[in-house]
Amino acid sequence: MRIDQQQITEVNTRNNDIHNRQMDILKQLHSGSRIEGIIGKLIEFQVALPSWALGAGGTRFGRFSYGGEPGSLEQKIEDIGLIHQLTRTAGAVSLHIPWDIPDDIPAVKELADSLDITFDAMNSNTFQDHEGAAQSYRNGSLSSVHEAAREQAVEHNREVIRIGENLGSKGLTVWLADGASFPGQYNFQTALKHTGESLKTIYAALPDDWKMLIEYKPYEPHFYSTVIQDWGTSLMLANACGEKAFTLVDLGHHLPNTNIEQIVATLMAQGKLGGFHFNDSKYGDDDLTVGSVKPYNLFLIFNELVYGMENNAENPPLSWMIDASHNIKDPLEDLIQSLEAILVAYAQALLVDREALSEAQQYSDVAQCQEILQEAYRTDVRPLLRESRLRSGGAMYPLQVYRDLEIRKKLIRERGLKVRATGL
Q1: pLDDT digits (tens, 9 = 90+) for 377-416
Q2: Does the keyword Manganese apply (predicted)?
Q3: Which of 70, 82, 104, 354 has its CA 20 to 30 A from that of 38?
Q4: DSSP letters of 203-239?
Q5: What is the C-alpha separation between 198 and 193, in angstroms, rounded?
Q6: For the chain, how big is the Rg over CA atoms in Å?
Q7: What is the pLDDT of residues 175-185, one digit of tens each?
Q8: What is the set of domains in the chain, with CATH numbers?
Q9: Is 340 in contact with 385 (CB distance < 8 Å)?
Q10: In 3-state terms, what secondary structure has residue 119?
């Protein structure tokens, strides 16, 4: 389904007076040219939505369908189109293979083009066995002691690259669940060696204009050891592969209270931060709505991202994606909320007075450094988001429009109550 653009325009018109007053206040507090610059960057900022996030996600204890879930890749792209029409920020999809292999690539591309959706980095899957596969990944994939399993995992990644090429994607994300649950289960050095060799083989298959994103995670599904357990191991493997390989940071893939903003700064200084996956957490890889638990942490991370984007020209443009599991919320509402939180943190970081901050840092004025950061963080930047959406043809209040138009009810009528999306 698609939303009648006139319906969005009518809701925007009803909220115009209040919005204009809020914008006037922001322009009084900050220079008009600076506000315009931030709005321009918000309009350009696009976040990919993963193909597995359009349905109700699961936990190890169960999965509860929300009704009206997309039953095909085409319906998933249509749902992303709905979110993009409302927010004008979700202009890309990140496919997961084999969960979402296109049956008709030209038709899928045509559908995506009609909705102004591009194809972001492709995601391979060697953390579960594939139907009909000769080898099992029970004891590892790219790191396996079994050569046949490693070769099968490498070939799977090659297949993902071929599919992505036909779709117009320019990247491959590799996340490994490979690890050990018990001491002595495998040799650490051998597992790392096999992983490095496998990644180099995959890297050799990359088209010239592609990049490979190597993800890391300290634990889960294994709780004793993970082969690529931290950003340093990811960076080491990326450097060994070549200039088209980069580290990917997932917010949930860290031990509690890890200083993620410092990791971001270090990687960007090395020109090796390639992608970023957004979510939130209280304990581990909780995959909660972005900004729902630690919004100040998200702001601090964006503060380093903005600095890096402005000062580290050698670092490539980043691949942004939401990676979350929507178990008890309407997944489309959850994604809309996540996009809002991401843009709020981005706009707040753009408001930081970097000249004043640099001066305070030079004089070791610790209190003033904190004041400058928190002044930006405590600014209500939501009117800037609304203005950027208004200028782009989106909804000033996307969640409100989604609910007012009863989109979930319409999806249930169209698709049924019991359908379940592929994926998590």
Answers
A1: 999 999 999 999 999 999 999 999 999 999 999 999 999 9
A2: yes
A3: 82
A4: HHTS-TT-EEEEE--SSSS-SSEESS-SHHHHHHHHH
A5: 9
A6: 22
A7: 999 999 999 99
A8: 5-415 (3.20.20.150)
A9: yes
A10: strand
